């Protein structure tokens, strides 16, 4: 191949500077310097005339000279043309141009005819050292211009088709530069035609240059014609898109033509190439008019495909013009950055664009319609337009609440548009911080997701910025700190190597330990210890931690000692790695073995140090054992270290809490009689072991609540056994044969007669007896958690018996606790702050009108962390094998069969099944339930108290674990449904038959409620809607759908499965006999309706709810159901009924017309509606409270408002005729937002309709006035009533101070008097209207 010639380095800008004259520093050549040998003699008319005018042409590759100013040359040349002695115009012009044509046949002469002209040195009148080129000087002469343009266009086409490297200069570019900005164009139409011919006949490269220079060459009059040509070219030649749009943007076009061009460009936006997008979007935004801005921006965000979303490789901006080889897809971010910068600049320039961008993004209501540009534009505008920050923050929160900005959506955006996010990182960081601080858990979680994705996808220094921003949140509220530490922990465990680079920052955050709670301290220490011990290069930080933990363990303050215990446990976890596999090489294995041996020795020494330091602080020792149990449960520890700890715990537990008793041994009788009770090993007649509980309780009870209590070891009996059984389970591969004797051994506890005569005991003896019961039930709970996984039949039977005993003891505690004032249960949760107040059970008389809550079946339920069994050990003992794994074999037959099943081995009684289901639902609600809004003042009671082991597992893991019991749950639901259907059929369909509601069916109803609650908790988990949990969702749906369709469900898709599950569960509504279960069923159906990809269930759901509303509900005594709980269930049912309705006002009107109208006609004492029996004198407040919330969907039509006012008038009439305090409070609470909505929305509608529908508007206003007048009187009356009540309460308090010894009698009388007063008030009030 012939060698390529040197390419020109001249671009368009350079050529313009070389051609046009400019006021630069003079760099001239004197006339004398122009050697005659350098002067080019041109023997033609052209040469004669230009030489005569002062133009000197030179040989070689050097510029031509001019000995005068170009204006003088122009004047002289024009004069010579007109005054020539031989030729006349236009003949002379043609001969002049032919001479010029002959002159520029030489490429070198052509180049210097198009380039600048140099001024001679001795010319003092010239404007500068460089003046216009020869061609341009001639073009400014009108007589020469037409012929010269013809010549130049021919030369341009000729040069365009030459080889790319054949010319030393870019001739087409030079010719175009000479044609630009001419002083006058003689024949504009001809010039335009020539330009069009050049565009049509030249190659792509020259086309781009010509199109780009079009606005600077042709006259404004020819712009419409050229725009038409460019539009046709736009449709046929996509490669010219940037040049065409750039030219169109600079053309002066009529509005009609511009609109046509605009819509043509917008129409083809979806097919635009990545490298052209920034030009196209800039053209669209620049030419967008204010009235059409919203529609245009909506179209842009729908049609635009950002370069990051394009899979085919693109050219980078720098190489697209100079290389035909496609660049890799890594070049795409450059195009995207340019595009977004163009959008940013146009939004700053035109303020109305930013507002319309936000409106277009805000109106997106479907997750499938969310585009990456939505998030990117919000970030761009947040930083570029400060005045729009509050609306942008609101849009973010609304998108998150609506489920549009999810983890999956954001993850895809970060994965494909990292470069754009880096450009807007400051805005991203501010938004992340703002969302993380939100009191709404869902919004706060998305803020954490933004931080996590920034760390994972942005890389570089952005990771450090993200980590530092997260550490700043440790000074925020407790809810924010919890979310922050959870995120840091997840990053540290999943991306240890990346996070280890920032260990020094995390280590510095330990200075804030004093401001954190114990759970937060644990999270932070876990992250720090993991990162510090993950890399050998952090040896200095490891030494600092070891020194710190020794100081903390020796500290006298319990809080610092507890922190030291946590630090030591976490150091042990991270210090010693798991055992090496056999696949390692011998040398590597030897080195690791030596390292592990040294680390193992250090870990054992640290464990011994902790045990000695906590020997006088049992709460710290219990915390240490709980933490080691957590590590053993979730982490992989060194086998030798596990065996070391297990031996220590076994010996210590046996020495401290286990004793041997002879069959005829005499147990202590002080302060009361003690016996070895709860024994399951009745066949053993020899010496047996027993849990030495009561003597230890008696010894410790006198000082349990005092600081000296630190010396008793009884508090860590269950934590120590928990650690022991977990280590045994790990070491023995799940077999607990070494400790199975503890399952059936007796417990030394108070004799039964002591508990029977509980009232006769003194206060200290009562406290001791109750503590024995609390320790016993916690011990049994831990036994259940330990042995529930064993397969041996005998062990299973013992587990069933222990479960029965747990229920028995809890019932006994519930009966005895109210008799013992100011009793504090023993501590059972140890990872709490020492500043947390200890709860007490006080029986002091409550205020008048409020009854003291007493425990029923589960002990007294106080607000403290240890006031009942549920909070003492229910959640604390939760582990990877929950109690609920015991097979649920429900007995749903007749009473005699149930009694037989209850006593049979291997099956559960109804109370036991209820106990397990309540326990399971408590855990599911904690893990899978929707978190509530965090209080801005902080949460004094942590939600995770009692669930420390359960919190080790993610919601996805828990949901996956629960799948195995879905099928048994469905079986039991079917059995109970069949049981009630049979009973209803036997009683001829009479729901309130005597045999249907009895004390024997009450446990079945309770179990049925818990079964439906379990299904609801599982299906309502928001995580099922996420893509990563799709398999879990399909597994649950297949199990449930299989009960209805059989094995055919294996071939069903998600839509068919959801439809089948909906039909299966909706079939249960006919056999439900209590409103609580019906409400849970409706909530479950609503949760199914919220799952993705299914058909419309609205009609079926409305039918089910309407049938439930038309049912009569009864108590187990056969009486019509009523009360606070019933009203709550009815409120939820009505709320869902109207929320799911497509026309809420229509259904509200139906309830009022068919329900309340017939309710008014009743004259009996027990007022109720025949159509809707649930609407009665006690439940009307539930319907009133729903009224205002149903108006959000219809505000514009007068007819709708007429219906709404009729509903309001009906409800106010009910309140007028059947006044109660409950209805009064409901009315005052909900009527104000209704009236505010009326003033804001209905009044403008009535203003518009008054001219044509004046009578309807007047009737509507009169109806509103009648209701509001009554409500005004109601408010006045209620205010006076409160003043009278406050005066009466003040008088009663004075009487109570003098009669404290007869509190109970006075309270009963006060309640009766209060009821009488209320009745009198109701009578007087109804008569006053």
Describe, in short, the structure shown.
This protein is mostly helical and 1329 residues long. It is 60% helix and 2% strand. The strands form three sheets. It has a four-stranded mixed sheet with strand order 1-2-3-4.
Describe the structure.
One of its GO terms (cellular component) is nucleus. It is found in: Nucleus. Belongs to the Fanconi anemia protein FANCD2 family. This protein is mostly helical. The protein is about 60% helix and about 0% strand. The chain has a four-stranded mixed beta sheet. A two-stranded antiparallel ribbon has the order 5-7. Strands 6-8 form a two-stranded antiparallel ribbon. It is elongated and about 155 Å long.
Task: List its traits.
single chain, 1329 residues, mainly alpha, four-stranded mixed β-sheet, two-stranded antiparallel ribbon, 56 helices, 8 strands, elongated, disordered N terminus, disordered C terminus, nucleus
Average pLDDT number: 76
Say how many strands there are: 8
Fraction of helical residues = 55-70%
> What is the 3D shape?
elongated
Q: Could you give the distance between the termini?
A: 110 Å
| Portion in strands | under 5%
Structural class: mainly alpha
How many helix segments?
Answer: 56
Largest sheet: 4 strands, mixed
Q: Rg to the nearest angstrom?
A: 44 Å
Main-sheet strand order equals 1-2-3-4
Oligomer: single chain
Residue runs with pLDDT of under 50 for 5 or more positions: 1-33, 311-331, 580-592, 837-903, 1177-1196, 1293-1329
Biased composition (Basic residues): 845-866
InterPro entries: ARM-type_fold, FANCD2
Biased composition (Acidic residues): 1284-1297, 1305-1321
Biased composition (Polar residues): 886-895
